[in-house]
Write a structure and sequence with these properties.
CATH topology: Rossmann fold
Helix content: 40-55%
Order of helices and strands: EHEHEHEHEHEH
Shape: globular
Largest sheet: 6 strands, parallel
CATH architecture: 3-Layer(aba) Sandwich
Structural class: alpha/beta
Distance between the termini: 39 Å
CATH class: Alpha Beta
Number of strands: 6
Length: 137
């Protein structure tokens, strides 16, 4: 049996954390290992949760997901981060990728696409969801 993919969800809205977890828990090869409600908390919790992937909201206070991603990648260069946002503008996805994220999905992306993004980034590829690539938003 393959080792499950460990995902940490960082979002300042509890409903989005819960929804993302519910979607991912349906996948037998993915386990949600922890939740964070802010950028500083995410940076602090990485060594405790030991995720393979962080699903990272962009719009958070006091530190947004772009800055948090930059800091996490400085501390843990091998850790994969996927931007997770309501934002569908390609320029926002580009900022997240430039900060060190390996992928970007929207909160309206289908569960299968979020899982596809996780698989792609763990295989060393970049992933941008269809909604952003096709300019739907």
């Amino acid at each position: 049996m393959k080792k499950p993919i460990r995902v940490m969800i960082t979002d300042d809205h509890p409903i989005y954390r819960q929804a993302a977890a519910a979607a991912l828990q349906c996948q037998e090869n993915i386990v949600v290992v922890g939740f964070c409600s802010s950028g500083p908390e995410a940076i602090e919790k990485v060594p405790e949760y030991l995720p393979d992937v962080v699903l990272m909201d962009i719009r958070m206070q006091p530190m947004d997901g772009i800055e948090t991603t930059t800091r996490i990648k400085e501390l843990y260069p091998e850790l994969k981060v996927i931007g997770f946002s309501l934002e569908t503008r390609p320029e926002i996805a580009a900022k997240m990728l430039n900060a060190g994220a390996s992928g970007y999905v929207t909160k309206s992306s289908p569960r299968i696409e979020i899982c596809e993004a996780i698989s792609h980034v763990l295989n060393g590829k970049r992933y941008v969801c269809r909604e952003v690539k096709e300019g739907r938003g």
